[in-house]
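Hi,

I'm pasting everything inline rather than attaching a file, because the server keeps stripping attachments. The sequence lines come first, and each chain or strand is labelled.
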Amino acid sequence: MATPLFYDSLTVRTQSHDYPIVITEDATSKDGSMAKQIAPYISGRQVLIVTNDTVAPLYLTALEEGLATDFTVKVCVLPDGEQYKNQSSIDKIYDALMAAHFNRDVTLIALGGGVVGDMTGFAAASFMRGVNFIQIPTTLLSQVDSSVGGKTGINHAQGKNMIGAFWQPKMVLADMSTLKTLPARELSAGIAEIIKYALIMDETFLTWLEINLPAMMTLDLAVLGEAVKRCCQYKAKVVAQDERESGVRALLNFGHTFGHVIETHQGYGNWLHGEAVAAGMMQAAELSQKMGWLTHDEVDRIKNVLMLANLPTTPPAIDIKTALDLMGHDKKVKHGQIRLILLKSIGSAILTNDFDDQLLSDVWSQHSV
Amino acid sequence: MATPLFYDSLTVRTQSHDYPIVITEDATSKDGSMAKQIAPYISGRQVLIVTNDTVAPLYLTALEEGLATDFTVKVCVLPDGEQYKNQSSIDKIYDALMAAHFNRDVTLIALGGGVVGDMTGFAAASFMRGVNFIQIPTTLLSQVDSSVGGKTGINHAQGKNMIGAFWQPKMVLADMSTLKTLPARELSAGIAEIIKYALIMDETFLTWLEINLPAMMTLDLAVLGEAVKRCCQYKAKVVAQDERESGVRALLNFGHTFGHVIETHQGYGNWLHGEAVAAGMMQAAELSQKMGWLTHDEVDRIKNVLMLANLPTTPPAIDIKTALDLMGHDKKVKHGQIRLILLKSIGSAILTNDFDDQLLSDVWSQHSV
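And the predicted assembly:
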């Protein structure tokens, strides 16, 4: 068995239970240790691996064969893409569980990116009112974003992530080697979420990123592993304070209210989530500048970091009325009023409805048709 | 406003929060106090009432008009029947929520029996990862069974209640007057669950029922209210010990493993749930007798109580292989072994796989084709 070049882990504490995130390398290779590492977290003898048709050819066989000795292993391969993050895919998971005669002892394993993780988690939350699940995130975005927080769910035709549950995994295995097979656009999309943590929580991490982004973009796995670990720690700290997102956790949605408008308007899957968040963070930064909280230089610094990661810094052209109407569907609307996460300074975010509506319109109109 | 003839309440304690069950009379009448009683438990301004096409003509207008002054009220009327307890109905609830532009401040109100309550609860558990809900159970079964425990969910084509969540209401309003419009078969089906509590938990309650069943069958609302209160107390006690059904809570499924076979075999809706549970409790009692735990006289006593409530005491003819195969789909199968709830004596139940398979077959074969 290959010895990983690095191996690190952290423990996430939640209301229901604590679980580890193991950050490692080469576990998913043929002679890797994937099955061995996750086996202790499988409680019964029944395993359903949920993956998609892009990830399956890369890592499924190693996982399936590694587990087959000790467990009854079934597989559910879904089509790849945000457009399949819907009830129909959840039904396919339920059908696979029922066809296998699996019961509440089953453990679901999500092998894939955020879409696979969110759907597998929701299926695990709702099958027989809740069964175990384990995440093996294979994209940078899911390694930093979906590994912590227990958010699971699917999209509704009228809005993203409208259906779901809070449901925590028993263990997360983040293998940095999977990033070698990740398309460049998706690597950048993951880095957008990493930059987000710097902007809302820690200015010194932004400085770290300004130095280390070139290494991350050229797949230095140790540096990527360090970034993933730091983000999981930031997120775990926030989630521990506010598991059900009634307060501080909402700040993690920085850039997302603008980003959701972009994703909904463009159709799921055309803009990657991280790309939409990148453009959305720029809009939020621009509004923060209009409010007098950020300087022009600080907004430029944010723009430059996003550009280092090959990320978009402007939204597509959307007319103002459509944009504002789509914002009204966002979950952060409270009593009919749009609330946004803005920056008081780099490293410090607030959730507020105390902004000038005209300034919000201006942020959209400078990019609109 | 009419003064209720009686008014009683109890508090249910759960891991997430405590909530009241208010047991009353005439609240649902036109000049009743339904809206006034539930309004304090609605947290935002948005209300979606979920009901079915049988209950809507009876009580919807009074509830809707009572709430319309203070809240934005929308309604989702589903077709009545266990056969509609499925994903398609949940999708209708989601669609109604999205069409109304409701967000996580919404409160869902379930106005109807157990099917409406289970589905509304699951929609509340999964819309935006969880919103408030209130139950107004209008059948005896749902008043005693669904008011406590937080079980919500829907059926899968291959099995009952396979999809769902544990999700607690903010308040339950059980109006005994709704039982006046309940079909006689459904009143009996509700009494089956009441008898269940006596059999598994309290022999003195069985004696109480032997005395009071005639009054319950002729709709003495005060006696029915007393029975509902006692059952909610029994159930609350069990659920407080074991909210997620890892131990003692499983005993509440007495008669249900046999009953599920009957319901699945006959097609949902042909046997009422309570009727299937009644026949299932007799089968469990017969197996308990074969195990040497109950006497012939005790089994007869159970049969006589069920007959006082006009309940079936034998299952329909189902061949043994089909019956045992259907039992394998039940959630109480652990590591592939069928576990059953049996009676050690009247008032004392156990969950066990320590029974002779031949005796289980005998219990089915004495009624099979």
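The CA atoms of residues 326 and 348 of chain A lie 26 Å apart.

If the labels don't parse on your end, tell me and I'll reformat.
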